[in-house]
Amino acid sequence: MSKKLTFFLIAVLVVGLLPLAAATAQDDETVTTAVIPPALVSPFHVAVQDGAVEMAGELGWEIITQSPERETDFEAQVAIVEQVVQQGVDILGVNPINADAMIAGVRVANEAGIPVTMHNMITPIAEGDVVEYIGYDQWGGAANLAAYTCGILAEKQGVEVAEASGKVFILTGIPGFHANRRTGGFKYGLEQHCPNVEVVGEQTAEWEREKALQLATTALQQTPDIDVFFGNSDEMAIGAGLAAQQLGLTIGEDIFSVGIDGNDVTLDLIREGTVTATLGVYPKRMGETVIVQQQKILNGEEVPYILLTPSTVVDLENLDAYIAGDTWTDPVEGQPEVDNGEPTVPEGDMGGEAEMTIYEGATTAVIPPALVSPFHVAVQDGAVEKAGEYGWEIITQSPERETDFEAQVAIVEQVVQQGVDILGVNPINADAMIAGVRVANEAGIPVTMHNMITPIAEGDVVEYIGYDQWGGAANLAAYTCGILAEKQGVEVAEASGKVFILTGIPGFHANRRTGGFKYGLEQHCPNVEVVGEQTAEWEREKALQLATTALQQTPDIDVFFGNSDEMAIGAGLAAQQLGLTVGEDIFSVGIDGNDVTLDLIREGTVTATLGVYPKRMGETVIVQQNKILNGEEVPYILLTPSTVVDLENLDAYIAGDTWTDPVEGQPEVDNGEPTVPEM
């Protein structure tokens, strides 16, 4: 299915930096922590423990990692918690399978004054004080895995995703909130994406491979035309895959098996063909995160009540990227997952816009730098449509050229004089726009900026809305390394080749995209060489001319990277006009995710784009402006997602399946460094 990096990537590049530096007061004496799994029968819990142990070792901490023999022995896990409390640990982390049973253990820790974290769950327990819950959205992750499942069924049947049909058998875990959320989310995802797919069976295998093998064997004997087994855990998906193989079926052709965890053993079996895909939840990184957060707590730092770790659907195509950590995104503050049979994040724009109060009769202005790029047209379309839904008037004037900075400032000053209620602007030259922002500030008109999260040097902007340009470009570079490696039949780190970069108008947009891409190449395929770099000023025709000249001078260029889609299109057209086949002889990648680019990916003129959801960005601008006018607090930086899009996940991107709701982020500084420093 998806190429190298992104298929139902949840999230995208986000905040939540986990610094390991400066452990203040805890440096004076050895810290003892306890991280208690429900058992170690699952490779998932072993990996979490390994991550915690390694990170504790890096900090010079002592760590206790006792566990019951079986995940069903809830009383034994509580007894272990009570025992480590008596030993006098400084902090305690626990992953309960039965949350109600663990209340007793939490109470004992509370009485002893020992702070408690819980991981692999973001569902608060009914009683007892837990400082922080660390884990992924089980419902949302399972729903994304279901969307992926709909996609592979549709591909097999040669139909649109919504028209896919088939039979699914679900192997559930031990009854409780973990099993409920994963099963519920998967069913919900099927209903949303391929409602003709039927769940024909559902039985508990208690998280275990052998029980799953037995149940799947029986299920296939009774219902031979099952198309998919979904295991609430990888171990159960493995059991189902083994059962199918023992009955002479081929995984990936006759039947599919998908699970949840992203364990190392599962990754090996995806490569071997026993399992189709897993929802990778980075168990070892989760264990590391537990210790990092515990350090913050002991240092007296504020931590989120809910820390949301990422999840990524992993199949054969993005397996190496997942293993290398390229698909990881830093944890962010989240909201509790309630065991209520409903999505963790309610449906609707911005995770619950349906409950919004609409500010009546507003007039807004959303000012692009120009409309020569389909990107800015799409942003404007999204803003206009959303404003129309709200009954707002909207002004969308723009200069004729993106290089006419003074004209954009003049337009801003003009709409301020017209007396708009709120103003949104996407400047190409941030310094030039300071004058316009000051005029709006003096008039008392709130200002938002979009397609950028780099604050301007002067002037008051209420909110910046956009994606991490450096991080997105770095991910696109990692993808580029992957396609070069695939073409050459080597590991990603061994890939070689020549890249030519077509940059935008000089400024922070071009700087961040170019810098991030070069950084991504250095990190993932250091043998790939950048052989040229010239500005095409965001334009297709200029890119076509430059790329033609570049190929005539250096015929063995392997990849053109355009800071924008339009420049990637120009490069692709240049290559084709010189008789090269894009996707075979040469690759062309860009940034935007415009509709015209998506069509050209399908046609083969462009290889891939960093899809940044321009229309959704425009909608988001209006949604946030509505909040501001209603007096609601909004983040200073609102981080919108980005997703590498190629032929394989094109339909999913178009359908919105890869979109994730914006989250609070941190400023992107034009400093030649990643927006989110390495952990």
What is the 3D shape?
A: globular
How would you characterize the largest beta sheet? 7 strands, mixed
Mean pLDDT: 92
Structural class: alpha/beta
Using only CA atoms, what is the Rg? 26 Å
User: DSSP strand (E) fraction?
Assistant: 15-25%
Terminal CA distance: 30 Å
Q: Find the count of extended strands (DSSP E, 2+ residues).
A: 26
Q: Could you give the order of strands across the largest sheet?
A: 2-1-3-4-5-11-13
Question: What does the oligomeric state look like here?
Answer: single chain
Summarize the structure.
By secondary structure, the protein is of the alpha/beta class. The strands form 4 sheets. A 7-stranded mixed β-sheet has the order 2-1-3-4-5-11-13, with helices on both faces. A 7-stranded mixed β-sheet has the order 15-14-16-17-18-24-26, sandwiched between helices. The chain has a 6-stranded mixed β-sheet with strand order 7-6-8-9-10-12, sandwiched between helices. Helix 6 (209-222) packs across helix 7, helix 11 runs parallel beside helix 19 (614-629) and helix 14 (469-488) runs parallel beside helix 15 (508-524).
